[in-house]
Amino acid sequence: YALSGLRWDRTDLTWSVHSYPNPSRSTSVFQPDMVKGILTQAFKAWSDVAPLSFRQLSGNDREDMGPGGDIRVSFTRSLHDDGYPFDGRGGTLAHAFFPGRDDVAGDTHFDDDEYWSYGGDSSSTDLFTVAVHEFGHALGLSHSSSDPSIMRPYYQGAVKDISSYNLPLDDRMAIQELYGRKESKPTVHPRGSGSTPSHPRLPSPPPPRPTKHSDRSFQNRCEGGFDAVANIRGEVFFFKGPHFWRMQRTGNLVSLNPALIRNFWMGLPPETNKIDAVYERKSDGIIIFFIGAQYWVFKDNVARPGYPRPLAEWGMSTKDGGKVERVEAAFVWAHNGKTYLFSMGEFWKFDEGRKEEGRKPEGGYPKDAALWRGVPTDPDDIISWGEGDAYFFKDNLYWVMQRGGLDQDNVTPKSIAVDWLRCPHVPTPTPHLPANPHPRGKDCSCDLSR
Amino acid sequence: SPAPMPDQYARGLDWLSRYGYLPPPDPRTSKLQTKDGVERAIREMQRFGGLEETGRLDKDTLNLMQTPRCSLPDIVGSEDMLKRKRRRKR
């Protein structure tokens, strides 16, 4: 399955219908009540497996809940002012917008040029299966290539009995990744068991448990330890092994699932399994990758011809005159526009300006990385972010050096996983705030890697 | 008079870019899709659709492209989302 990276921040959602199929283009029995019934069943397919509830808004509710609640359903045709025009009968059938704060978030549109039906033959289009698919988008799911999956992009025809319809496993896993599992099903009372049904007092539900994530990509994303982090075109890229995650300017991840570096960054060796450092040069927007003792210059996402070239061209040598074997961190500090490279506890400053050839570090470098007080001297990587602040990343923590500062003694680290990569909050001991003081009063020590 | 119908290849490329397999054409630049890029995109579409990966617009591929479907792209990128926002603003 594939997730859009967007989800609702609550589980009690509301919906409304704003227009119905044109009677002349749908089967004669397709009345508004029947449409609402079919849509209700389509929502139920999702709420059966995840702790979601869907309430249809009545006319009175609509004023209180905004114009139509979270998911607004309509039947429209051709151009309808959302950038996704319909194309007459066949072709595109419907679409829905992913969750979010945008005013179109959750909107679900069906092409009114289709012959909508319920359980009809191949001459018409089944509303139920299309609605289940579109509501999947409205809840945050993207298209899936799995078979079976209701989130496959192509029309799949009708199902036998919509009241007993169960989502395929792929879709259940996807929705549960976003909203967790449904703990229990409602109790079913046998029919005709008495005049007034006496409702037994139900035991209190157990406290909610966080979703168990067992897949490898979740672990990779949430355990930190990124090889490189870079601010490129205002988006933050987290590189780890052969993969990367990408956080857009809006703060959303393009996907919770990682992308393969080699599928996006064209020109690195196909066996690339680790990036040491990356940064975007602000003067001309080129992107520089460091891997071992070599570097690549990219124009957009394609490497320029003639690369890799040796790191030695950067003219860096250690304080004791040794050779620099690799770059551990690289960034352009927004407050002065200079480029900083870190390696083995030392750092160099460059004034790259517009020249690419013959770059040399400024005089007096390298300097000791410990000059950046309060942050790790061997960061995984560094970026400039926010108001020109320097963000140091190490393991699963990050430290913020406020604008232009070098010597903030008390920089409290925060969680990369929680703040950047949409992972659940798990209390972890930090060097400054141990979460679990030793119970017997003995000294304990925490190092940065923990 | 109506514009001539684009050929099958052009329609195939249009389909591939509409559903996220090829970057959308940018009228401000004169970028051309490379042959390799188009072949890769077709293969990706075939893989996603459960077809044999031939890299060509063969009969099965064209049939699948004509199957009714959801309008959202299969490969959703940030460009697509930004474009959508810009369109709405306009």
Record the SSE blueprint.
The complex is a heterodimer of chains A (450) and B (90).
Chain A: E1 12-17, H1 32-47, E2 53-56, H2 59-64, E3 71-76, E4 92-96, E5 108-111, E6 116-117, E7 125-126, H3 127-139, H4 169-179, H5 216-222, E8 228-232, E9 235-240, E10 243-247, E11 259-260, H6 261-264, E12 277-280, E13 287-291, E14 294-299, E15 302-303, E16 309-310, E17 329-332, E18 339-343, E19 346-350, E20 367-368, E21 381-385, E22 389-394, E23 397-401, E24 414-415, H7 416-420
Parallel strand pairs in A: 1-2, 1-3, 3-5, 6-7
Antiparallel strand pairs in A: 4-5, 8-9, 9-10, 10-11, 12-13, 13-14, 14-15, 14-16, 17-18, 18-19, 19-20, 21-22, 22-23, 23-24
Helix pairs in contact in A: 1-3
Chain B: H1 8-18, H2 35-49, H3 59-65, E1 69-70, H4 78-89
Number of strands of chain B: 1
Low-pLDDT windows of residues of chain A: 186-214, 427-450
Which term fits the overall shape of chain A? Answer: elongated
Largest β sheet strand count, sense and barrel closure of chain A: 5 strands, mixed
> How many DSSP-defined strands of chain A?
24
* Average residue-wise pLDDT of chain A: 83
Q: What oligomeric arrangement do these chains adopt? A: heterodimer
The helix tally of chain B amounts to 4
Basic shape of chain B: globular
Which residue ranges of chain B are poorly predicted, with pLDDT under 50 across at least 5 consecutive positions? Answer: 1-5
Sheet of most strands of chain B? none
Q: Taking Cα atoms only, what radius of gyration of chain B do you get, to the nearest Å?
A: 14 Å
SS-based structural class of chain B? mainly alpha
